[in-house]
């Protein structure tokens, strides 16, 4: 695939060598009240509500209207709670009318990946085995969003239990990419990425075990953030691979993504692996855009991971990423190519560890306490039949793989070795991040591909995770943001740049990402499906 | 919501004894043996032996094997599960109370709901360290939890959080003294390891056997598993090992150690080998041992069974299997045959951080450890008490503490021991009370002993006062004063009483002086009656004799 220089709307005005849009100087911020940064829906909503320009009900209705129009094509959601959304919006309007304090996420419609538990909505994990399951509690991340005034709009589609890279492995439906509905949105958080891309919601939660937030963010042209392992509580996230799983954020801007991350971060006494580290106020970074005039990222050391531009990576993607690197240089960064020799070992190690943990984590879906129980004459059949009926082929494949890898006699050759590889990868990232402030790479080897293209070739699909799995193995934070387009679909297909930071340095990633995003002139990552929608984003 | 979900029926599961845990299945049998015992009452293998038991028809083979068994020795190891009495479960904040209605003490975590995560109760580590230290183990400064994976309806997550290759404590030993009636003697049994894990729930099977229900109250309750070295040779040794372990966990306050409630569960491994052979024979595991006496009897039965097979040339019929002890029939029966080793696919628990023990932490716990039973016994021995007395006093921490407190108040050791072992023990037994429930306090026992020793009251009056104190409390001084019980030690006063009695019984006096000297007892009794029991018996007898034998 050749790289094209198209931004969907500004092809004629485009002048860079790459797919990049050009850097522009921003106008200085006006005096009070400062206008929200142009890309933040969350800040715009807050502005609209507090200035009483729009009511929460009006805002909610505008999103729901768009959702009703686009959802038949996209199938992002497994469950939408329209009535509850409107009810909460009305309640919020009453609060505003009586000048009550409103939370920082007040009126913000948040979509939640369906493997994250919500007390008042079904949570299936995209699996038949949990069809109709209603959790008795909210995941900590969801509870925090609700506590800050956020409105959960519904539950989004995913590959069953997060196992997949296309969202085709959902037991219920196939989600389409808003940029080209014949293409996959990526996965496993495909529903959450597509919903934000199509502006069916403001922001969304996903989960990232091996790239499940970052790759769909890249495919759908939205910002996706995989936080450091331990930054966000996993309580209420249906475990796939516990040592790799994190809840991540999607937004249509770095600012929104950062605000959402701030809302859900921090220690949780219900998750022993959640960190006690203090959570910086990421959001405070987003309005200092008067600094953009010249070389705002001066002195930032950026390492471009050579192995991520090797054979097997789409030429167009390579061009876009090199263009992004040039853009970072223009912003003042010093970009050098670096090598992570253990990079290629990450994929096999990841699939062994993730499958091993999943074979254990999914044991609880036995039909005894919840989910569908197959009537059987004896216990083994009850287990076997309930699970055979409840799980899809990809989940079964991983359970089998993991069971095998943990078996007596194989443990040392597989699980233990994979753990050793994991240690190596951690060390090589540590070394690279001692030398560099951030590392960059593509988020995926290609842009979104066709629905069905890799469905019957699991290895090809697994190979697509090469860009992301290492980051999970190392437990590091990574931000993916759209940085250009390659040819495909009606208006080109977005490509995401992955920025990897040191552990718990999301603040830096968000700062760099925000400046990068603000300076990409004429790149509006709004899919053609809703391009003519007149809502100001 | 939780309640209804957890009691989901296992529709159409046949009752399948091969797959069931004995603790869940055979609870009903507990009451038969020990129905008169109070839960809190200390049981030891010794004491059990003294209780009436179901009559068991004698087996003819016992006679045979007793002869043959001289040529064989048994090798016995025990795995003990001790349920910790922490306020909340190991990984969630549910309390656990034995006997609560099904699924009333459950939450998303101990039910294994999707998305729920375990968070370790730090008390579990504290208790593990306590027991590890008390068992003279080496503690792992850096241990971890692992997942042990198998499917069973009482195991909500499909895996048990346990410890595999790095247990928290290893390589210790347990000292104990065998009861005198079993030949006595000191023993030191090796401890292979102590590790932390969580308990499973319970299955409740319907009468018809057509369905089962799951009660998850017990799921997630913390356990310590203590694995012994194969150091025991007889059923008695094994039972006494278990009893000592129970004593120890009670001394430490980490568990109530109650076998009937399943707070202490023993699985034993038994094998035999010809004497002189170093290689172990095929080991058989025995489950469903709900009392120390069943531990002892099940092992003895199993040894007999194996020796008989072996001596009849059928040693190959001893196979590696799990057998159930059937209390009613007093025999072990096959529960399941082991087809290869079960593969539990252990791997490190990713939801829990590693368990790191700092030196300061361990030292602080070591400093706070109470005196262990073994130390107490050695101390009592040095006080000059017989082993019988030592064992009686040290068996129950509450009795030992009562005794220690009495001694601390200056009471004579031997006298205190006698009072506790005879009259106080008898009273507790009759009234079905523990030593903590009687009204007598150690200080008053010491006072009582001193009052008798000092001659303020007679032994007989002392006994009366004791029962008053046991039942109603109060002080020795108060009772003596209230009832005017001070002993009469004035020879003149006693002499007057003797004179009175002699005068009132001229006929008997005649007989006495005629040679019927046995009548002295009669006179003594009469004088004592006149004194209302308060006359000093020694003085009384001395004066009585003088007057009886005086030439009139
Ligand atoms: Zn619980």
Provide keyphrases for this structure.
heterodimer; A: 537 residues; alpha/beta; Amidase signature (AS) enzymes; eleven-stranded mixed sheet; globular; disordered N terminus; B: alpha+beta; Arc Repressor Mutant, subunit A; 3 domains; nine-stranded mixed sheet; 40% helix
Describe this structure in words.
The complex is a heterodimer of chains A (537) and B (552). Chain A is an alpha/beta fold and 537 residues long. Chain A has one domain: Amidase signature (AS) enzymes (Alpha-Beta Complex), CATH 3.90.1300. Helix content of chain A is 35%, strand content 12%. Chain A has helices spanning 41-50, 56-74, 82-97, 140-147, 190-197, 214-220, 254-264, 315-330, 346-361, 379-390, 393-406, 412-435, 458-463, 469-474, 506-518; strands at residues 77-80, 109-113, 151-156, 203-208, 223-226, 246-251, 301-305, 334-338, 438-442, 478-486, 493-501. In chain A, strands 1-3-2-4-6-5-10-11-9-7-8 form an eleven-stranded mixed sheet, sandwiched between helices. In chain A, helix 2 (56-74) packs antiparallel against helix 3. Residues 1-34 of chain A have low confidence and may be disordered. Chain B is α+β, with helices and mostly antiparallel strands. Chain B has three domains: 12-42 and 369-482, no CATH class; 61-341 and 351-357, no CATH class; 491-549, Orthogonal Bundle (Arc Repressor Mutant, subunit A), CATH 1.10.10.410. Helix content of chain B is 40%, strand content 18%. Chain B contains 20 helices and 17 strands. Chain B has a nine-stranded mixed sheet. A three-stranded antiparallel sheet of chain B has the order 1-10-9. In chain B, helix 12 (397-408) crosses helix 13 and helix 17 (491-504) packs across helix 20. Chain B is elongated and about 100 Å long. Mean pLDDT of chain B is 86; it is low at 1-44 and 46-68. The chains are: A alpha/beta (537), B alpha+beta (552). Zinc ion is lined by residues 89, 92, 94, 106-107, 109-110, 220 of chain B.
């Amino acid at each position: 695939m050749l790289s094209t220089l198209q931004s969907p709307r500004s092809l004629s005005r485009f002048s860079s060598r790459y797919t990049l849009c050009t850097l522009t100087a921003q106008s200085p911020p006006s005096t009070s009240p400062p206008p929200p940064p142009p890309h933040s829906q969350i800040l715009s909503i807050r502005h609209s509500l507090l200035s009483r320009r729009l009511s929460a009900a009006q805002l909610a209705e505008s999103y729901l209207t768009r959702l009703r129009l686009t959802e038949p094509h996209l199938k992002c959601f497994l469950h939408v709670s329209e009535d509850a959304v409107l009810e909460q919006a009305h309640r919020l309007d009453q609060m505003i009318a009586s000048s009550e304090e409103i939370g920082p996420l007040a009126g913000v419609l948040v979509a939640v990946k369906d493997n994250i538990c919500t007390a008042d909505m079904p949570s299936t994990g995209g699996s038949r085995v949990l069809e109709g399951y209603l959790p008795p509690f909210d995941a900590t991340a969801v509870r925090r969003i609700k506590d800050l005034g956020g409105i959960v709009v519904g539950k989004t589609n995913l590959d069953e239990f997060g196992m997949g890279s296309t969202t085709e492995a959902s037991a219920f439906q196939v989600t389409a990419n808003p940029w080209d509905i014949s293409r996959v949105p990526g996965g496993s958080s495909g529903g959450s990425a597509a919903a934000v891309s199509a502006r069916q919601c403001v922001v969304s939660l996903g989960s990232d075990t091996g790239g499940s937030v970052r790759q769909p963010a890249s495919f759908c042209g939205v910002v996706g953030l995989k936080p450091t392992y331990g930054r966000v509580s996993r309580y209420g996230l249906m475990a796939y691979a516990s040592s790799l799983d994190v809840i991540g954020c999607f937004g249509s801007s770095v600012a929104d993504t950062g605000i959402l991350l701030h809302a859900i971060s921090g220690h949780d006494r219900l998750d022993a692996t959640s960190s006690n580290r203090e959570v910086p106020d990421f959001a405070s970074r987003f309005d200092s855009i008067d600094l953009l005039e010249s070389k705002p990222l001066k002195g930032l050391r950026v390492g471009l991971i050579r192995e991520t531009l090797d054979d097997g990576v789409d030429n167009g993607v390579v061009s876009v990423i090199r263009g992004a690197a040039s853009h970072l240089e223009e912003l003042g960064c010093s970009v050098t190519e670096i090598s992570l020799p253990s990079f290629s070992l990450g994929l096999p190690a990841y699939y062994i560890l993730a499958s091993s943990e999943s074979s254990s984590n999914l044991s609880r879906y036995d039909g005894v306490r919840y989910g569908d129980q197959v009537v059987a004459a004896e216990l083994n059949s009850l287990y076997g039949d309930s699970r055979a009926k409840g799980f899809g082929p990809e989940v079964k494949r991983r359970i089998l793989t993991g069971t095998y890898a943990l078996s007596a006699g194989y443990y040392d050759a597989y699980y233990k070795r994979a753990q050793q590889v994991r240690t190596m990868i951690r060390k090589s990232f540590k070394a690279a991040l001692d030398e560099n402030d951030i590392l960059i790479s593509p988020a995926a080897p290609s842009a979104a591909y066709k629905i069905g293209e890799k469905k019957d070739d699991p290895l090809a699909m697994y190979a697509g995770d090469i860009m992301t799995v290492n980051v999970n193995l190392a437990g590091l934070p990574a931000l993916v943001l759209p940085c250009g387009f390659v040819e495909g679909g009606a208006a080109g297909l977005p490509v995401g740049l992955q920025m990897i930071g040191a552990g718990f340095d999301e603040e830096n990633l968000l700062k760099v990402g925000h400046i990068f995003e603000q300076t990409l002139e004429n790149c509006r990552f709004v899919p053609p499906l809703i391009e003519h929608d007149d809502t100001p984003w | 919501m939780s309640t209804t979900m957890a009691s989901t029926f296992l529709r159409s599961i046949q009752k399948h004894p091969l797959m069931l845990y004995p603790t869940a299945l055979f609870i009903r049998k507990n009451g038969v043996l020990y129905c008169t015992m109070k839960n809190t009452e200390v049981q030891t293998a010794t004491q059990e032996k003294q209780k009436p038991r179901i009559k068991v028809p004698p087996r003819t083979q016992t006679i045979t094997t007793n002869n043959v068994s001289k040529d064989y020795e048994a090798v016995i190891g025990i795995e003990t599960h001790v349920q910790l009495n922490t306020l909340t479960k190991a990984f969630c904040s549910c309390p656990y109370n034995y006997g609560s209605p099904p699924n009333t003490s459950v939450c998303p975590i101990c039910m294994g709901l999707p998305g729920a995560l375990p968070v370790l109760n730090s008390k579990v580590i504290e208790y593990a360290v306590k027991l590890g230290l008390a068992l003279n183990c080496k503690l792992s400064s850096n241990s971890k939890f692992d997942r042990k994976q198998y499917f069973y309806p009482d195991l909500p997550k499909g895996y048990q959080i346990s410890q595999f290759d790095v247990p928290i404590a290893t390589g210790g030993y347990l000292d104990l003294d065998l009861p005198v009636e079993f030949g006595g003697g000191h023993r030191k049994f090796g401890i292979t390891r102590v590790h932390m894990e969580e308990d499973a729930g319970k299955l409740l099977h319907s009468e018809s056997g057509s369905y089962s229900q799951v009660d998850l109250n017990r799921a997630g309750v913390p356990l310590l598993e203590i694995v012994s070295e194969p150091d025991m040779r007889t059923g008695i040794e094994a039972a006494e090992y278990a009893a000592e372990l129970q004593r120890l966990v009670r001394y430490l306050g980490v568990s109530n150690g109650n076998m009937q409630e399943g707070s202490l569960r023993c699985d034993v491994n038994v094998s035999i080998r010809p004497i002189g052979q170093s290689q172990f024979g095929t080991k058989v595991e025995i489950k469903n041992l709900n009392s120390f006496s069943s531990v002892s009897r099940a092992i003895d039965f199993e040894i007999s069974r194996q020796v008989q097979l072996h001596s009849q040339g059928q040693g190959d019929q001893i196979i590696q299997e799990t057998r159930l002890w059937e209390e009613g029939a007093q025999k072990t029966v096959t529960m399941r045959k082991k087809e290869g080793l079960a593969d539990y696919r252990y791997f490190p628990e990713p939801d829990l951080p590693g368990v790191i023990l700092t030196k300061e932490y361990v030292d602080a716990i070591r400093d706070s450890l109470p005196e262990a039973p073994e130390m107490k016994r050695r101390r009592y021995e040095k006080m000059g008490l017989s082993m019988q007395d030592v064992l009686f006093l040290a068996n129950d921490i509450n009795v030992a503490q009562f005794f220690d407190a009495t001694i601390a108040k200056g009471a004579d050791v031997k006298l205190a021991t006698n009072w506790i072992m005879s009259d106080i023990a008898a009273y507790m037994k009759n009234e079905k009370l523990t030593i903590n429930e009687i009204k007598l306090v150690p200080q008053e026992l010491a006072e009582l002993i001193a009052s008798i020793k000092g001659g303020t009251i007679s032994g007989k009056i002392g006994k009366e006062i004791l029962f008053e104190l046991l039942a109603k409390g109060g002080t020795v001084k108060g009772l003596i004063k209230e009832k005017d019980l001070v002993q009469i030690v004035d020879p003149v006063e006693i002499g007057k009483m003797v004179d009175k009695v002699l005068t009132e019984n001229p006929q008997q006096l005649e007989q006495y002086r005629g040679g019927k000297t046995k009548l002295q007892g009669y006179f003594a009794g009469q004088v004592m009656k006149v004194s209302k029991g308060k006359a000093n018996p020694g003085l009384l007898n001395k004066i009585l004799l003088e007057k009886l034998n005086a030439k009139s």
